[in-house]
Amino acid sequence: MAKSSTGLEENVAGLLCYVAGWITGLIFFLIEKDSKFVKFHAMQSIITFGACFILSFIPVVNWFIWVIALVLWILLMIKAYKGEKFKLPGIGDLAEKWSSS
């Protein structure tokens, strides 16, 4: 894998975009200058886990959202570390569009 402008390998930076959900996604989105791979994973993290965070305030779906978020968190970190640009349905397209702007 190539290095990102953060000095990290792209796959490691991509994984780190997901570690603390939308917060690390935002950090990497703001500091990454060159890597489209890292910017994509950062934006997908912001959208996915930002939405999960907001939806978790709805009492009826709270537990369900956190189960989904946990599964997505693990899946997305594994895919990013493997160097895959794994796109979630709908969210992945938005992340791709907004990360390249």
Task: List the SSEs and their pairings.
Blueprint (H helix, E strand, L loop, with lengths): L9 H10 L2 H10 L4 H20 L6 H20 L9 H9 L2
Number of strands: 0
Query: What is the structural class?
Result: mainly alpha
- The coarse overall form would be elongated
Provide the β-strand percentage band: under 5%
What profile does the largest beta sheet have?
none
Helix/strand order, N-terminal first: HHHHH
Number of helices: 5
Low-confidence stretches: none
Average pLDDT value?
95
Distance between the amino and carboxyl termini: 23 Å
Q: How many distinct folded domains?
A: 1
Using only CA atoms, what is the Rg?
Answer: 13 Å
What's this entry about, in short?
The chain is built from five helices and no strands. It has 101 residues and is an all-alpha fold. Helix 1 packs parallel to helix 3, helix 1 (10-19) packs antiparallel against helix 4 (62-81) and helix 3 (36-55) packs across helix 5 (91-99).
